[in-house]
Specification:
The chain is mostly helical and 103 residues long. The protein folds into two domains: 40 residues; 37 residues, no CATH class. The termini are far apart.
């Protein structure tokens, strides 16, 4: 899937104006190319910014395993000592983390 110099300049210019996934979809439709191809081209041109997932509250996501690991560290235990705790609801794990936080 080759891109002419003019196509590349247009794609880059449009993406720089609105760097989001909707722009990628519009460009893919306009040039009859797969979205992944457009993303690849933007990446090779050094302008593509990957979208990072955030939670509804705008925070970086944290896995239950990471929470259990922090809890075990706060308690001075090995992760294996708390085997099965990662099956608890995330809200419960957050409460435990706050309760065991030494600060």
């Amino acid at each position: 899937m080759n891109y002419s110099k003019e196509m590349t300049e247009y794609i880059v210019a449009q993406y720089i104006k609105q760097p989001n996934r909707d722009t990628v979809a519009e460009l893919a439709q306009k040039f009859n190319k797969p979205e992944k191809s457009i993303i690849g081209k933007l990446s090779r041109e050094g302008v593509y910014r990957r979208h990072f997932y955030t939670t509804k509250s705008g925070e970086d996501p944290v896995t239950k395993s990471e929470l259990v690991s922090e809890i075990s560290t706060n308690l001075g235990l090995e992760n294996e000592s708390l085997l099965g705790l990662e099956k608890a609801p995330k809200s419960t794990l957050r409460l435990l983390l706050e309760a065991t936080n030494p600060e």
